[in-house]
Design goal:
The chain is of the alpha+beta class. It has three helices and four strands; from the N terminus they run H-H-E-E-H-E-E.
Length: about 130
């Protein structure tokens, strides 16, 4: 009886903790990554990308490529849910970050059957 109560108390103390909420976010992010990588990339024109998550200072936490012919409504809905939950997590737990703006990718290429996001970096004039 004491063991059951101890386990229940431990479980309850984890609920609503930053660690537990972070674990749930990680699982949802893994699901998004899994869906995005479920299709082979042979033609980059058939791929799109979207922002995922939100940094504590605002702006996307990352970007992910996805196959345009997949169930995009379901996929983008999961991305939106993840982003909203990460935003709420950041506010609730007063998360801080570097506040650097993550530049969106310029295009997608297919490498070894996988979609790869590419950013064209401009060089400063000398």
């Amino acid at each position: 009886m004491v063991l059951v109560a101890a386990v229940a108390c431990e479980k309850q103390s984890m609920m609503g903790s930053p660690e537990a909420e972070s674990l749930l976010l990680d699982r949802l992010h893994d699901e998004i990554d899994s869906l995005a990588s479920a299709y082979p990339c042979h033609d980059a024109a058939e791929w799109r990308f979207t922002a995922v998550g939100e940094k504590p200072c605002g702006g996307p936490a990352s970007y992910v490529a996805y196959y345009a012919k997949m169930d995009t409504a379901n996929f983008l809905n999961k991305v939106e849910i993840y982003t909203e939950r990460q935003r709420a997590y950041n506010i609730k737990w007063n998360v801080v970050s570097d506040c650097l703006f993550l530049t969106p990718p310029s295009h997608i290429v297919c490498e070894d059957g996988k979609a790869k996001l590419v950013r064209d970096l401009e060089t400063a004039p000398e």
